[in-house]
Structures are given as structure tokens and as C-alpha cells.
Amino acid sequence: MANQAALNLLALDSEEQIIGTNVNQWILCNNFSVYKMDQPFPRHLNQTWFINSGEYVKMEVTLLPLPFDEEAQLTQVFIKESDQIKLQLDKYKLIADHTTDMVSILDLQGRIVYSSPTYDKVTGYSSTDHIGYSPFDFVHPEERDEIHTKFIELIQNQETTTVEFRYKKSEGDYIWLETYGIPVVDEGTVLNVIVVSRDVTVRREAEERLKRNEYKQRMILDHISDLISVVNSEGIYEYVSPSYKKILGYEPNSILGKSIYTCINSEDQQLMKETIEVLKKNKKSPPVRYRKMDVKGRIILLEGIGMPILNDKGEMDQFVIISRDMTEKVKAEQAKINEEKLFVLGELVAGIAHEVRNPLTTIKGFLQLITPHDDGEFLEYAKITMEEINRIEQVVSRFMILAKPFSEFRENINIKRLIEESIQLLKRQGILNKNRTKVIVEMDQPAYLACDPILIKEALVNILENAIEAEATKITISVKEENQQLKMIVTDNGLGVEEARLKTLGEPFYSNKERGIGLGLTISNRIITNHYGKMDFHSKVGEGTAVSIALPLKIEI
Q1: How many domains does the chain have?
Q2: Can you name the residues that pair with 549 across neighbouring β-strands?
Q3: pLDDT in tens, 379-399
Q4: Which of 80, 307, 462, 491 could cysteine-pair with 520, CB 3.0–4.6 Å?
Q5: Which part of the chain is the PAC domain (predicted)?
């Protein structure tokens, strides 16, 4: 029961509003053990009570036992309003009524005791109809537990907190709220919580769109083959694309913070500096080719273009460099140029070979008729002349290889046998014996290749001749099958080739030899290429040269 004084004190209209309710919901207190019957009476307490007008009032409370039957007792509570402290929310309401943000006041059970008029405009709910309701019921289910936990922590820690969450409007859709929770503390006790919320839906949606766009851009950057980097005005990398790992072998994070000139060929650094100055001045730059060293020390040819990133003042704070690996393209262009050279050469050779061979045959025949009848000094001259004629015939024969088109004839050949036949040919010509060069063949298991054996033998003999004439005393031929390819590496310990000249090997009329015309490796390269293979050269002066040949085991025509 509750007398009229109690009803007046609690701002209640009738006794029915309090009968049957739990005393805990009226009292701001974390410990209700004072109401247990096993403790002595009377008890005098100071408590803070919640009254129906939306205020907290400090009360002086006296608890006395009330006899009821013989076995049970009820507690009779005498309440008197304290004149010392009366907690009112009028000052908070006055501020809240004139702010554009939503302001709510919650009790410690998380129920709304006040909402500002802005609450109606933002959520669509009436600010008065929601008094006594919990705002957590309108929080999105995915964030509800987290927000409720934050509310409890705010009360326990008595510290302001900031959260963002989705809140359900009266129409059923959700908006994003940025909310500040502020505890109201009196004498170390939290009385209520002021909640200030702002609709940040537009900002959150913009952030989500930005994230999606950034994700799309990152997906593009992560899968693009070009090298993309962002460099500041001081030439320091601030971003590099994942393609740096694929093309150059460097982890992107290992490049960040380093100079743009890192790993750029020293001969190209001045060109890059001049290009950047042009970019700063004209806000654009022409494409420029430069060389960069990859993680394995190989030179990669790149073609890049720079684009400025301007600040609000129109000044270039950063610039973007987009570069493309041109190494293979340039090799292909050079191969095409060489092929065109060979074609022109072949046309020329086809026209003059017949005219050269006819007089050579006549001269050689008459020389053979004369020499048996002369045993003097002329015989020595005739021998030298015959050697030179044979050399001219050999050159003409090699010219003819370049002149005639290659056929698609293929025969399954034992590679070890083909190598041995090539070595025997050099022995019969006296080339191996003259230099006392030792040839070693390394092969784990028998290997077979579909090829034109005469042409492949010609290519191999040319490579071996070059090694022998480079004063090699040891030549190693290693053969293995790998990734559907036959890989053959011919390594010698000869004089080696300078790096500047290494790139010209295989080009027509380039030779390191006094008597050579530079067709041996050219012919070998063309033979390998027409077998859909590839030939590479690696050399170091004073240590020797390695010629790598890769031929497909199966050719689809």
C-alpha cells in the first residue's frame, strides 16, 4: 500500500501505479540487501528515488517490521523528502530543447526519461510517447549487444563514451547515429546518463561508397601488370603497386620511403631527373625509357610516364608514375629487325651464290690438275689457295642456309647421339685436337627431340666452334628435360665476352674472331628460333661463356 503523502512525493496519481511494482525500479541503488528480513530493524537510510515527473530525489528512509500472521513479516517503509539535495533535470531539458542534436536522458536501467524535440524530426517517433521505453530496442540487432555493453561500462567507469550505430526509424528503415554518452554523477554515484546523438547517415554512406571505390581501385591495382607508384615532391615512394613483386621481385613495403632513383641504372638517373623537372614545370611529361635492376640483379627495360597530383594551390605535391616492362617487347622488335636483315641478306645471297660457286668450281678444278705436276714452291702456294677456296665455299654454304626457307621436317632424334656426332665432326676436322679441348656431356637420362637433325647439329657445331676459338680448354654440355622443354647448356672456360658486346651475339656480321664474319651464331640462333626455341647468352670476361638453348619437346603446328 502507499498513502497519499507517498503518492504526492512520487508524483503518482493513484495507488494502483505503485501497487505490485518492485521497489527496485524506484530506487537508484546497486545493493538491495537492506530489504532482507534477516537484518535488524529499524534501519535508517539515505537513498535516491526516481519519481514519475522525471526527476531523481534524495530521500531519508526508515524501515520498520510490520507483523503479519505468525510466520511472516512485511517491511513498512516511511519516506521523507530530503531538503538537502533535489536532483532536477530542468537545466538539461532547457539546453536540449534548443539544440539541433537529439538529446535523451536515460535512467540506469536504460529507460528514456526525457527526449528533446529533435528526436521527433530525426526518428519519426514522438519524444513524449517513448518515455519509459529502452532505446536499445531500436538499435540494429548486429550492434545492440555492443551498445548495451558500452552503456554498462559507462556507468561502471563513470566516463564519457562515443559510439556509432544504426537506429530504427518509425518508417522501419535505419539511420546511422553518432552518439555521446555522458554520465551525471553526484557524490560518486551515477544518477542518470545524458545521450547526445547526431544523424550521420549521409557521412557514413559517403564513407561506404568511398570504401567500395577504394576496394575496386585496389582490386584493379592489385591485378594490373603495369608498375604504378606514387612519389612525393622529394622523390620518395609513398605507394607502389603489387606488380613490383611480380616484375622486379621486390616486396612493395620494402620500397616505401626510398628514393625513386633506387635501383635505376646510373646511366639513366640523369634522364629521370630531367623528366621529373619537365613534369613539375609543364604538369606533364613524355614517355621515357629507363633501366631498373630487379631483385636478382637483372636489367629490366621500362617505359614510364608521369602524371602530377596537384594540391589546392595548383602545386604538385605528388606525382604518379606508370611504367611498363618493355624488355620482351624490345627483344621481339630487335628479333624482327634481325629477321628482316636476314631476309634481305638471303635475297642477296640467293642472287650471287650461283655466280660465286661457278668460278670457284673452275678454279678449284684447274688447281687440282696443276698441283700433282709441281713439287716446288708453287705446291705450297697451291695448298694455301685450296684452303682459302674451301673456306669461301663454306661461307657460301652458310649463306645458303640463311637464304633458303626452313622446312617443317621433324624427326625424333636421340639428343645424346646427335651431340656425339657433332663432337666427332669437329674431331675429324681437327678443330678439337688442335686446341686439345675436352668436351664433357652431362645427361641423367636419355632424351629425345622432334627436330631437323641436320640443322640442330649445324647449330650445335657452330656453338662448339665459337667456344673452342675462344681458347676454351673445357666444354660442358648439360642436358635435361624441364617443363615440357629440352634444356641444353653449353658452358666453356674460354676468354668470355664483355657485357657491352654480349647483346650483339647472334646478330649478322658480328664476330670477335679475326677470320670470322659473324654468321655462325646467327645461323644457330635462326635454327633454334625456327624450332620454336630460344637461345640466351651469359658470359664473364676471364671466366667463360654459357649458351642456354630451350626447345619444346612437343610442337603444335
Answers
A1: 5
A2: 488, 535
A3: 777 777 887 887 787 777 766
A4: 462
A5: 161-212, 286-338
